[in-house]
User: Fold this.
Amino acid sequence: MLNPEQQAHLKTFRKMAHEKYSDATEQYPNVMSDVVLTRFLKARNFVPAKAMEQYMEYRTWLHEKKVNRMRTVAPDNTSKHKRLLAYALPGLDKEGHPVYIERLGACHMDTFVKLTNTTDYGTFQAWKKEQIFLKGEQQAERLGVPIYKHIQIVDLKGLNMSHRLGVSFVAEESRIEERFYPETVFKVFIVNPPWVFPALYKLVTPFIDADTQTKTEILSGDVESFGPRLLEFIDADQLPVEYGGVLDVEMPQPDHQALLEEKDAMSFEHVKVAAGRTEKVEITLDGPGLLSWFVRCDKTVDFSCDFSCSGQNHVIKEKERLAVSEGSFAADSGGVAVFTMDNSFSYLQGKTLQHCISFVAIGGAR
Assistant:
């Protein structure tokens, strides 16, 4: 419950939001509800101007990422990230919050960084948050109370020093959580921490929101040790057996090796980009269809893609420095797609890229 002063700040913030976005509520349902606005107010210590600044950033991000579509249409690479990560939404806690479990320790980080990048991973995280929200909203409708937070169990069994390669991904996930989904974490439990955990935790702590850190508990020992603590928050029939409950559910396992083998089996072409130089690959599309690509580099390169048709140029992929890029583009007409590999920022080191680009036309394939 908000006190009278906080309610006054909410009223001010609500007025600011409705004046700015009066014609956009239908495109993003519930985005201007008091529940959402209060989350941003709390995140900015109930200062309406600061809350509005963050909220405007959030609304821009909603539009750019097409987050409203994520509830019904999964973004590109969702199936790939599902295979790279082992996670589940098995049940609800005693207050109705969704319980999210991620087996971070089971993730093979050496393979992970070869098959994705922080931008694509961030989009997947947004999709995943929307799925958690949906489950919470369904429970809220049943209970008649707002539910917008979740409990997270992070299983570190299998964690090793190779996971240090994933620091940038943790940073991106934390950024999205803090900037666009503030005040949505109810509790975080870290279980099965191995001996390398303290060192790795020091690497990622600077990127984790201070409020989330205060809600985090590190539970050492086996399930007999940490299970009772989880059961204080989650009923046994909502918690998998391996975490101390009685819920008989098979937790997913990562599918790294098969996914890597599938990518290695693709027919790649090679491009060498000399130090300080830029190379382009042009693909002519004879008509409407789906253009897909998978590009990987031995180091990082500034990668982008544009599509030209009828004298107009469309940006398919904004320039981004990365080692892996995978995506697709639905072309409404014929034209020319130009993939740019820009190594002009590197004056000493040349790069070697592998790319597999395909185009499936309506009524045929290329």
